[in-house]
Design brief:
Helix content of chain A: 25-40%
CATH superfamily of the largest domain in chain A: ATPase, nucleotide binding domain
Number of domains of chain A: 5
Strand order of the largest sheet of chain A: 14-13-12-15-17-16
Radius of gyration of chain A: 27 Å
Distance between the termini of chain A: 64 Å
Oligomer: homodimer
Number of helices of chain A: 18
Structural class of chain A: alpha/beta
CATH topology of the largest domain in chain A: Nucleotidyltransferase, domain 5
CATH architecture of the largest domain in chain A: 2-Layer Sandwich
Largest interface: A-B, 42 and 42 residues
């Protein structure tokens, strides 16, 4: 059987495999916050031709069913079918995902150190060919040459030794020996191969980013980004931990993300005409769960109280062990994690922000799929993860979506007429609302008096923009014959929970060290979401603290930036390890103060308006 | 199709597979010095029923062919056949293979050091269970506990970390941590598992010997010996190197010997009710080629001038890498090799002999499949391999065989009547002649005047014991209706070559250091063959130097003895490495003096009778 996509390709459909699964296996990803379990109702497709069986229609309206709109995850073709995929069902990688450019980072490194110090070094060895009189074994011959260069204590793996003898003879005893900073030999290569390469990898819960870097001069040669294929098993880390442990799919999840990495890598290797064996080091940066899954380490204890990761400070293991298709002896460095919900991506972030080097107290926040916060300076660092959840990325919001074409990113509401003015990414017809749009919308709804301090719709207003459905009241952002774009009371509740979690997290963290938000001199906002955040609106809804706009800095994807720094500099690696060790990890979910702070922060902007002096002055 | 063995089992026969191959694949080994290539003529079987196709009968007599005797390696069944395997075609492992008992070695170790120091140590860790307040990761928790015990700098492999978290929780945070002397963690096990075990392995060209040892107290729990299955590809190391490199069968040879080891191990593990994971260290001892094949390292450069091994001083690699079925993280220590034809078995031998500790100059010789010689004392050691070849083990000798039941081990010839008196192992009817029998026979033939100084039969003597066949003259050791047991002139030539190589090797080695045989205070004879050697006769034929009998010591299989010592003692491991480093390796095949010495030693007993004063006095 086949599934033909309207204006698209045809794919194979196996009996018993849902339309969602078949599409996914052919690389066509649909939005499915629930991981394809028939719960979230987002993977809607329209069947134009052919018969099918569909199991659940709970999330669909009568009109949808009449229009032959189905949930792809619970629909099974019975013959060849032709489908149409609505724009808002398509999972499209944001081409605006912030990838910090490497140029500034490289300049920084050059200012720090006279030369680059990647994990792998090369030394040119010109060996005396063996003779009857000088009959040392090949390995002892290499050791002797290294000793003449004052390099001692080298370790030689079995893989290295197996390949060494042939390579030495092939290159007539004049070779580059590559070895790690920990003095483990990697390979013996031709003296023509002076250049070598490395990978910086950001394994996000949602996306995987790979940088291919020339380790000889630090040039960023190529980069790529793709969805983390683990997404088919749910949007958030908890769902994936459950799938890995209770679902017995640890290996499947591990292979999924490793294949994503390898898949990104192959065309880069080809484009840049690089010998795979010359890619001889890599740095992996990810949250604690992503990191454990990447290494195939059972993540179950992360989810169970007292929430303990198996490793924070990872040993350097090999690419062969990681199943990454570069030189199999290449060292793979893992950005050190801090705790169960603050991982190596945050260590990388702090490193890239440089807040750990300055005396001023700074606050770092990464609002991606999770929301992590770090407060501190060159003397102390404290961190926590907020249970913000991925709502700003569209998950759990009726018409929520990522910041891609068709997403409502800004909202204005006339307080008199309640007329709505929308800003849409790509100037396309709106198909949903992204994180910055949500923040805008709530801020506007509140100041127009459409919702109260608790985020509940004010009843009895003279507007047809608010309507009451079975599932509760909802606000019509955009009317269309095809589909209205809505923000429901349940959506608003979710967003308020997320913003309250972030604000309460910051407050509790500062209270842990006996300080208040006033002490903070600078706020770094990292993560893909960060770049499109309207700071004033975020302050208005009480998500960010009430501070002058110039104190906020957007610093993009600092996970990959930190990984890039560590790929090229030993000093940065040691600094990163130091950051991770130095950070005090607070488990907010069991913090006594947190629940009070959280409850207070659930209001708009906050129960205690004195915390928001500029708002008090402006609207008070 | 089936091959039924008379008075034995039935085995499957595939079309195109020779009888020799089919038998071999079912574990029935025939003598085949040539590796089953139709050359040596030893794998004779008699077909009792059924039709077959046979390719070569060059080595068979007319009578044999009439009796339906065929070479198994060039015979292919065409239907079910019934065969009979003559005793002298069966490859039987010598139950008399000298396995040095461990008791003396253990007493020696106890006298040397207060406690045993195997490669793997155990430490009982009682960890504080994690809590919200004490939320270190599992790995950092282990590191903290180790630091409290003043153990720092431990390395943790990926395999260790993958299994650690579950084991810690299963044993409620009270565990034994096992780790190597090089501070690499191996495993975390229940506090009930205080004992741990190790393997000492001797990989001979012909046989594989395994000791299972309790590393807690040094007890030898079990041992086993089997043929090295690589034998199917020829008796000597050169044939195997060719098969590995030109034949592309490196992996096949590697797997063959590793399977032998694993096959010996399995019943031992079962009999002793040991958890395989508690076998957590191993020592491998073998000649240079056997060692490289065991590790899957291309041995080609050993055979090509200037004869260079890939490694002499092996890093410690893991059982998982070696494919040995014990704890996959277990360190596998390899006895250091010295040169292309003097391997770790000789290092082990010197260690076991203790000649490296004494001021008196000793000579160590291991006459197994190869013949290695070491001369020296506590200040210097020099070594070489003689190209003696495996003739004393029966290879290349018409009716040569190992020292097993039915082998002629002693010969007396009346100088008047030429009547022959035979001593036969197991008091069975004779089926062939083993090494000690050959030495006896040549000595007697010479002193009875039947052969001259060059080993040629004296013509025109009045005896029917000597007869001239197409292939030359031969001496009838034993007459029988079924088969005469012979020693041919070609056999004698082979034996004289072997004894000359050994004697010349000793002389040249001593000359290299400017000494003569007079300086030697003690001669250690190691190897399976050694124990049955008649020293006086060996002196008479000029194989051993003319020294008083009490200066000779038989020390059995010192390869396994040295491996056992290294398994249990760090001091012994360091001493062994020191021995290998200290030994000067001389390549006899290119030594200028060697050819002269060899030519002189080809005579009986020697061209220069003054070198054998006792013989000169007695018979001169």
């Amino acid at each position: 059987m086949e599934i033909k996509i309207h204006n698209g390709k045809s794919i194979m459909a196996e009996p018993g495999k849902s339309v969602y699964q078949s599409l996914r296996d052919s690389g066509v990803y649909l939005v499915a916050s629930c991981g394809g379990k028939g719960v979230c109702g987002k993977c809607r497709v329209k069947v134009l031709e052919g018969t099918y069986k569909t199991e659940s229609a709970a999330k669909l309206k009568k009109k949808d069913i009449g229009d032959k709109i189905v949930l792809a995850c619970t629909t099974f073709p019975e013959e060849d079918i032709l489908i149409e995929i609505p724009e808002d069902s398509k999972l499209v990688i944001g081409d605006k995902i912030a990838v910090t450019k490497s140029q500034g980072l490289l300049e920084f490194l050059r200012a720090e150190e006279p030369s680059l110090t990647p994990m792998v070094r090369k030394i040119l060895l010109t060996l005396m060919p063996p003779s009857i009189e000088d009959n040392l074994s090949d390995l002892e011959r290499i050791k002797r040459a290294l000793a003449e260069n004052e390099i001692n204590g080298m370790r030689f793996s079995h893989g290295f030794v197996q390949n060494m003898a042939g390579s030495l003879r092939q290159h007539t005893w004049s070779v580059y020996l590559t070895y790690t900073e920990n003095r483990e030999a990697i390979s013996v290569v031709s003296p023509e191969r002076a250049r070598h390469y490395g990978l910086a990898v950001d394994i996000g819960t949602t996306t995987v980013v790979v940088y291919l870097v020339d380790c000889t001069d630090g040039t960023l040669l190529d980069s790529g980004v793709t969805y983390n294929s683990q997404m088919r098993h749910g949007d958030d880390v908890i769902t994936r931990i459950i799938h890995a442990t209770e679902g017995g799919a640890l290996t499947e999840l591990r292979d999924a993300v490793v294949n994503d990495l390898n898949g990104l890598l192959s065309p880069m290797i080809e484009r840049n005409r690089i010998n795979r064996d010359d890619v001889d080091c890599a740095v992996i940066s990810g949250n604690t769960t992503m990191t454990q899954l990447f290494w195939g380490i059972d993540p179950s204890s992360i989810r169970e109280e007292p929430y303990i990761p198996t490793v924070n400070d990872y040993p350097v293991w090999k690419a062969g062990t990681a199943k990454v298709l570069i030189n199999q002896q290449a060292p793979v460095y893992t950005m050190a994690c801090v705790g169960s919900y603050v991982g190596g991506d945050i260590t990388a972030g702090v490193l890239a922000s440089k807040m750990h080097r300055n005396p001023e107290v700074a606050l770092f926040m990464d609002i991606g799929t999770n929301g992590e916060i770090v407060v501190g300076n060159n003397e102390w660092l404290i961190t926590a993860a907020t249970s913000a959840g991925p709502c700003f990325e569209g998950s759990g919001i009726r018409h929520g979506m990522r910041a891609t074409d068709g997403a409502i990113e800004s909202v204005k509401i006339d307080p008199e007429t309640f007329a709505v003015e929308l800003g849409i990414i790509g100037n396309a017809p709106p198909v949903g609302i992204c994180g910055s749009g949500m923040i805008d919308a709530i801020s506007e709804l509140f100041f127009a008096g459409l919702i109260d301090q608790k985020g509940k719709f004010v009843r009895d207003l003279n507007t047809d923009r608010i309507r009451i459905e079975d599932e509760g009241p909802e606000f019509i952002l955009h009317r269309s014959e095809e589909k209205d774009i809505l923000l429901t009371e349940a959506d608003i509740e979710n967003i308020l929970r997320a913003k309250a979690a972030i604000y309460a997290g910051m407050s509790v963290l500062l209270k842990e060290v006996g300080l208040s938000l006033n002490i903070v001199e600078r706020i770094y906002i990292a993560g893909g979401f960060g770049n499109y955040l309207n700071i004033e609106k975020a302050i208005m809804i009480g998500m960010l603290p009430d501070m002058p706009k110039e104190k906020f800095s957007f610093i993009g994807n600092t996970s990959i930036a930190g990984a890039y720094l560590c790929l090229l500099s030993e000093k940065m690696r040691r600094e990163a390890e130091d950051i991770a060790r130095k950070m005090t990890y607070v488990e907010l979910s069991v913090s006594k103060g947190f629940m009070d702070e959280y409850m207070s922060a659930l209001f708009l902007p906050h129960t205690d308006i004195d915390l928001f002096p500029s708002l008090k002055e402006k609207y008070g």
